[in-house]
Specification:
Helix content is about 30%, strand content about 25%. It is of the alpha+beta class. The strands form three sheets. A six-stranded mixed β-sheet has the order 13-12-11-14-10-15. A five-stranded mixed β-sheet has the order 3-9-8-7-6, with helices on both faces. α1 packs across α2, α2 packs parallel to α3 and α5 packs parallel to α6. It is built from ten helices and 15 strands. It is globular and about 65 Å long. The relative contact order is 0.14.
Length: about 375
Amino acid sequence: MTINAPKGFRAAGVAAGIKESGNKDLTLVVNDGPLDLAAGVFTRNKVKAAPVLWSQQVLATGRVKAVVLNSGGANACTGPEGFQDTHATAEHVAATLGIGAIDVAVCSTGLIGARLPMDNLKAGVTAAAARLASSEEAGVDAATAVMTTDTVPKHARSVQDGWALGGFAKGAGMCAPNMATMLSVVTTDAVLDQSDLDAALRDAVNVTFNALDVDGGTSTNDTVLLLCSGASGKAVPVAAFTAALTGLCRDLVAQLQADAEGVTKHVTVTVAGAATDAEAEAAARVIARDNLCKTAFFGSDPNWGRIAMAVGNAPTDFDPAKLDITINGVAVCVAGGAGEDRSKADLSGRDITVEVDLHAGDGKATVLTTDLSHGYVEENSAYSS
């Protein structure tokens, strides 16, 4: 279940000394072809990290032969010098592998506002290149080296008829993807056109990564990359590829939700009956991000009044007298007022399902979120120290 499960890919993850802990902190993924096609989606945050700006230029070519990712530093808000560091990183990878710098995508994650230790990073690239392999161990190392506050590596594989997908992702906080997630790389050995790769990735990300909203914080570094080697020789219809890619991304997102910072509850918020899908999504996100709702989830309290309040603050048109809210199968709010006894809604388990019906149209959307716990507050209050 690793990034290098599809044919044509090698990976490595090493400790380069970027993190003070000495843990693995640099990942290298290489596409050996015969194809070197790629697609990518990036953060919509106006404050974009240097590696995002660099990788957007690289992805404009529709081709990537290698991706280098580091944890331990975001290289965001570092000015022209930070961009020069990203460029130098790509050039070092290129020189090491015998390719061009324009063939190298760069991703970083960690604390914002500090430059990276370039000597350590370059030495790490050299070490990672020497350890590149298609083994499962190498793939797990690659998924591990991108972790920041994650507690476990997150990776998945999907084996199809004569072709495969593999991928890893990281992200536990500052996670409200908007075209991407914290960091994720997905590989495939299927044969497709670049335009089909791009369309498939955007469709898959929209209903998977973008459906996750841990804390409303869209990162400065969000990146999802899809690399295609074509090494299986199997031409795959775009519809079948998109379905398989969506399934793999959904697997990764479930792992991200399960390992979110301080998580004690996995919450699924579905809003139906909105005028449009966009309005349904907007309402679901307001619920998912509302601190009063999130603390109620943490306390296993089926306080549907907080959900009604959140929906009422959403940019969504509906008649409050028709509002229905169901929590874990119990219709606690019916036609804008009290429904079944809310004590019947058992929230003592890890999973909570919130269903809202606005009765204003056919729009529908689902957002995955988590609770707001003591652990989340403690972890984020001490992150930079």
